[in-house]
Specification:
The chain is α+β, with helices and mostly antiparallel strands and about 400 residues long. It has a single domain, classed as Cytochrome P450 (Cytochrome p450). It is globular, with a radius of gyration of 21 Å. The termini are far apart.
Length: about 400
């Protein structure tokens, strides 16, 4: 096995987390696949391979649709974490095979392009109000004041969570606690918080579903109920996934993006914001790595990845690959037209919420450019310790 990755790839090192891109370049130069002993994963750093493997059905987010844990050489999850796994395992992100196809088809009936289009005025109004509050205060934490509240408010509107419900304020903490389990080797405390959030969030959504069965409205929960073929657990897991996946992408791309813009001393052209947003999604990828299980042996770069192995598709590395993005792959180019980044995945697991994330990002960047043209940093931000979900603790600015 190739352990060449060990000296450069260290997802538990603060220095690596702060800037993983030089290590990615070394991995790409060294080969197509690398065994990493500490995480027991095969690292895939090149764009061509990552893009192909995201679509390859010999890999899966789960294996339980084909194998038992014993057959796959893995231990069953700790029963103490059952609420988290029940919630996670019934969501589109971690389903495979017939169940995934069925649920994605049914959810797509409710979560249509028209749904996103109809949300556009609400998203723009919320973005304007939040940025207006930051400007009125003379600045503050861009993350806490703007980036985090926007997607939470949008998903609350989508789900039909009443404005007076105290649970609106709990959506963000629930999401953060559950997403902690997607980091490498989560701690016992992280798992405990995720289980607690899974129980509380699921309980609230079941209450909301019961209310909408009696009094349906013009919201996503009512639309999911109308689909009928979805079980209640599948509805709950779908709602949680839409919050978690969309929320993390929007928050971290907003904050990573503005940190990059402020550091580079550049601003997007307001008339070409959609192109700039795609470049910011590529340049500092909010989800750096996506894990998959090998369901059938795969050969990559002279290595056989055996059934039962885990693969780490390095999205952040793929998005900086000169073989696909040319000699300017490590350069921020807000006018980059040819931009096939893999930030939202590919294949059957392509992010269902990508259009909503793009809408939110375009709206918030437009408002910040309009209302806060003189935005500047007041302190060097500190990276969150996690590697998989790339973000900051805060981003302190003044206007």
């Amino acid at each position: 096995m190739d352990d060449a990755a060990d000296p450069v790839y260290d997802p538990f090192s603060p220095a690596f987390v702060a800037d993983p891109y030089p290590a990615y370049a070394a991995l790409r130069a060294a080969g197509r696949a690398h065994w990493h002993g500490p995480t027991r994963q095969w690292l895939i750093p090149r764009h061509e391979d990552v893009s192909a493997l995201l679509r390859d059905r010999r890999l899966g987010r789960t294996y339980t649709h084909r194998f038992t844990h014993e057959e796959f050489g893995r231990e069953a999850p700790d029963p103490a974490y059952e609420p988290f796994h029940t919630l996670n395992d019934h969501g589109l992100l971690d389903l495979e095979g017939a169940d995934h196809s069925r649920i994605r088809r049914l959810v797509s009936k409710a979560f249509t392009p028209r749904t996103v289009e109809d949300l556009a005025p609400t998203v723009r109004r919320l973005a304007a109000d939040l940025v207006g509050g930051l400007v009125a205060a003379g600045g503050g934490d861009l993350q806490a004041a703007v980036a985090e509240p926007l997607p939470v408010a949008v998903i609350a509107e989508m789900l039909g969570v009443p404005e007076g419900d105290e649970e609106r304020a709990r959506l963000r903490p629930w999401s953060a606690a559950i997403c902690g389990m997607f980091e490498l080797n989560p701690s016992e405390e992280t798992a405990r918080r995720a289980v607690e959030a899974s129980v509380e969030f699921s309980g609230y959504l079941r209450e909301l579903i019961a209310r909408r069965r009696v009094e349906p409205g013009e919201d996503l929960v009512s639309s999911l109920i109308a689909v009928e073929e979805l079980s209640e657990q599948e509805m709950v897991s779908t709602c949680v996934l839409l919050l978690n996946a969309g929320h993390e992408a929007t928050v971290n791309t907003t904050v990573n993006g503005w940190w990059t813009l402020l550091r580079e001393g550049v601003r997007p052209d307001p008339e070409k914001l959609s192109t700039a947003v795609e470049e910011l999604l590529r340049y500092d990828t909010p989800l750096q790595m996506f894990e998959r299980w090998v369901l059938d042996d795969i050969e990559i770069g002279g290595h056989t990845l055996p059934r039962g192995a885990e693969v780490a598709l390095l999205l952040g590395s793929a998005n900086r690959d000169p073989a696909r993005f040319g000699p300017t792959a490590d350069t921020l180019d807000l006018t980059r037209a040819d931009n096939p980044h893999v930030t939202f995945g590919a294949g059957v697991h392509y992010c269902l919420g990508a259009p909503l994330a793009r809408l939110e990002l375009t709206a918030v960047f437009a408002e910040l450019l309009r209302q806060a043209p003189g935005l500047r940093l007041t302190a060097e931000p500190v990276r969150k310790p996690g590697y998989v979900i790339r973000g900051f603790e805060e981003l302190l600015v003044e206007v």
